[in-house]
Amino acid sequence: MADEERTPAAAAADEHVAVGRVGKAHGLDGAFHVTRPRLISLQAGDEVVVAGASRRIARRGGTEERPTLVLEGVVGREAAEALRGSDLLVPRAALPPLDEDEFWPDDLVGLAVRSRAGNDVGTVTQVLGLPSCDVLEVRRPAGGDLLVPLIRDAVPELDLEARLLTVDLDFLDEPEPGGEG
């Protein structure tokens, strides 16, 4: 997509990384559960972007697996519920450094997906953090989605610089695109 065609959300996604989502309200003071917590531990005083607005975390509770947050300016249960489903974003620069062979899950969104035979399978639309492993949601060119576990048997090759990953459709028990199976 050309730079002039990029939406503000797409530009923000390049500069920020989702570290969770606003879940259901917790109590009456504007607190909420964080769903899909990942990557870093959110703490009081940290800045997050939620629903397009930058907010400071006023209070953090809960556990690492099920944190609860109160954001400055989000007062009352109704205000927290209004944000439900919104991503919690942090600046990419605030993330800890990665080793050479590591990546953030958000870096995979938008990658082209090819089969081992070189056929176009689709594009990664999101990374789902499931209990057993992360799963790539791949939008197929003809429509519909393919779920691909992010394990070496299913994804034998990943090239972030080329913005391309290869999937093993035999392992996934999926037919080659354009083939008869």
From TrEMBL:
Keywords: Chaperone, Cytoplasm, Ribosome biogenesis, rRNA processing
Domain RimM N-terminal: start-end pairs: 19-93
Domain Ribosome maturation factor RimM PRC barrel: 106-169
Pfam families, per the entry: PRC_RimM, RimM
InterPro entries, alphabetized: PRC_barrel-like_sf (IPR011033), PRC_RimM (IPR056792), RimM (IPR011961), RimM_N (IPR002676), RimM_N_sf (IPR036976), Transl_B-barrel_sf (IPR009000)
Protein family according to the UniProt entry: Belongs to the RimM family.
Function, in words: An accessory protein needed during the final step in the assembly of 30S ribosomal subunit, possibly for assembly of the head region. Essential for efficient processing of 16S rRNA. May be needed both before and after RbfA during the maturation of 16S rRNA. It has affinity for free ribosomal 30S subunits but not for 70S ribosomes.
Domain notes: The PRC barrel domain binds ribosomal protein uS19.
Subunit structure: Binds ribosomal protein uS19.
Protein name: Ribosome maturation factor RimM
Organism: Patulibacter brassicae
Gene field: rimM
